[in-house]
Design a protein that fits this description.
By secondary structure, this protein is mostly helical. It folds into two domains: 175 residues, no CATH class; 155 residues, no CATH class. The protein is built from 19 helices and no strands. It starts with 8 loop residues before the first helix and ends with a helix.
């Protein structure tokens, strides 16, 4: 079984531009690619996991975007890949199987998969995934109407999810602003939400993550930190050298109190931590992990947990460290200069 038939966004976008795009097929490609990029193992149970993720996406979309549900249902029901499913019966069976809610993703997966495979064989290839995945989304979108108590339990359970799994189950909601399709590489979409109110920082950091991912994805371990950190540090340094106005605009988005905290982190982990030795941004990043958020990032690093979250946090830190290495770091001076640039 291959991982996913669609290897890049340009192919998906070409399909989406067709007269009648097959959204079940497009979403199957998007979910499969996103899940594999985020560490979902490709094995005989891979279709079960993708369908469970798609189902949760449907439930969450209904909770967050109830007025937009008819649009998604129309797109699904017009997809030639979607076989009929008795939603009322499937919802009743799921509610009976999960009287107290799912508890964990593996349990939910084991209950959802047989329902969406009903009357058809379980997928053995990419070409067979859109049908059951489309059914899973449709079941999720309608669950709040058919079994509101179960839908409520699932939404409550999702609120406790860590960043990475929470990202996977919220893709439909994020894609709704982009014609309901993936709009970037998975790591870029993951980072995008961290910079909602800072367009210059978002564009700069997410653009760098995209470039770094194009290289990292060919490595045996694409999430090994060093290459990401060195790429980010160099990118931060180059910004002030090549485009000082954009550098100051990026700085101007950060409130002064937060800038002071960021500069303190830089001084504590990059400047003070060097102790006269040759500066190593990777070692500085690890010092940042050990000190930030009461050491939570450092614990994740030691446990090899949430590598995508660590990459985004490390990339952000190294970008700012590279930028600070090239500019004056007196906050009052920065205030005056950035406000002057922003006013132009």
């Amino acid at each position: 079984m291959s991982i996913v038939s669609f290897k890049n966004l340009s192919i998906q976008n070409n399909l989406a531009a067709a007269a009648s795009p097959n959204y079940a097929e497009l979403w199957a490609a998007g979910f499969a690619r996103t899940a594999t990029d985020f560490g979902t193992e490709v094995n005989p149970r891979f279709p079960d996991r993708i369908c469970a993720i798609a189902f949760i996406n449907g439930v969450l979309f209904r909770s967050w975007h109830a007025d937009e549900v008819p649009r998604l249902i129309d797109k699904l029901e017009s997809s030639p890949s979607l076989p009929f499913l008795d939603l009322s019966q499937a919802a009743a069976q799921l509610a009976a199987a999960l009287p107290k809610g799912p508890g964990d993703l593996a349990t939910l997966q084991s209950k959802v998969a047989p329902l969406v495979y009903s009357g058809i064989k379980s997928p053995q290839s990419d070409a067979e995934l859109p049908g059951p995945l489309g059914r899973a989304i449709l079941l999720g979108l309608n669950l709040a109407t058919l079994r509101p108590e179960l839908a409520e339990r699932i939404v409550t359970w999702l609120k406790r999810m860590p960043h990475e799994p929470a990202f996977l189950v919220s893709r439909l909601s994020a894609w709704s602003a982009f014609d309901d399709l993936p709009y970037a590489e998975a790591i870029v979409e993951f980072a995008f939400s961290f910079y909602k109110n800072r367009p210059h920082e978002r564009e700069f950091v997410c653009g760098g993550l995209h470039d770094a991912w194009l290289i990292a994805r060919h490595r045996p371990d694409p999430w090994e930190l060093s290459a990401w950190v060195y790429h980010a540090f160099a990118r931060g340094q180059r910004l002030f050298i090549l485009d000082p106005k954009e550098a100051r605009l990026l700085i101007s988005e950060v409130p002064r109190d937060e800038m002071e905290r960021t500069l303190k982190i830089y001084r504590d982990t990059a400047v003070a931590g060097t102790s006269g030795e040759r500066f190593d941004v990777l070692q500085a990043t690890l010092r940042y992990f050990a000190s930030a958020r009461e050491g939570v990032l450092g614990r994740y690093y030691c446990e090899h947990a949430y590598p995508r979250l660590l990459v985004v946090r490390a990339y952000d830190y190294a970008v700012w460290t590279g930028l600070f290495a090239k500019i004056p770091i007196d906050v009052s001076r920065l205030d005056a200069e950035t406000k002057k640039e922003a006013a132009k």
